[in-house]
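User: I'm curious whether this sequence folds into something compact or stays loose and floppy. Could you predict its structure so I can see for myself?
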Amino acid sequence: MRKLLIIPTCLLLLAACDNAAVKPPETLATATLPTESHTDREIMTLLERGNFLTERTRQVTAIQTVFSRHTTPERARNLAALCFSKTSGTPFMPFDLAEIALAETGGNRLSGKAVSPRGARGVWQVMPERARSHGFTAQDMTVDEKCAEAAVRELFTKLEMAQGDLERAKKLYCGQGPQANAYLKKVRNYRSEMHSVLEQAQKRMASASMAQPTFRTR
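Assistant: Here's the prediction. I'll summarize afterward.
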C-alpha cells in the first residue's frame, strides 16, 4: 500500500505566497530518486520552497532591526518589506537589497529624498540615466517602491556584467576603483551586522525552547 505524505497547511500557504520562477539555492535542490513519483517530487518541492520562504522571512526581520538603527521604526518596517517583495522571483535575497540601501543612504537615515553630488537619487541612489534605462524617471527614484524596483533591475544588470558573481555585481553597482572597494567593504560590514542579528535571534529562540518545562507521563 502506498504511503501518503501529509503537508501542513501553513507550508502550502507559504509556497503559494511566492510563485517565483527563479530556483532556490542549490543547497535546497531536490534530490529526485528513481523510485519517486511525480506527486512525491511535487511534495518535496513544496516543502523545500517553504524552507526557502522561511529564510527570506527571517532575513526581513533582521533587516527591520538594522534599518531601525538608522531611521524610524515605521520606515524601517516599510523598507524591509520592500526588500522582501522586490526580490521575490529574482536571483536575489532580501539581504542583497538591504545591504545596498544601507551602504548608499544608511548614513542619511535611509532617506528617499537623498541626492548625491552626481545626481543619484533615492534610498538606493539610482542615477537618472540608469533609472530611465529601466523605465523610470529621475523623480520616480524619490518613491521608495519605484527606487527599490529600479535598484533590483540595476543589480541584475551588474550581475550579468559580473558573469554571475554577486559580490562583484554589488561592487559594480557603485562603480570602479578605490571608491568601489570602500563601498564593497561597507556592504560586507552591513551584511555581517544583519547576520549577527539573525544569530542572536536564533540563540534567544534556543534558550526559550530549553527553558520550557517538560511534562512526564506516568
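Summary: Helices lie at 9-17, 38-67, 73-85, 94-105, 128-133, 144-161, 166-174, 178-211. Residues 178-211 form the longest helix (34 residues).
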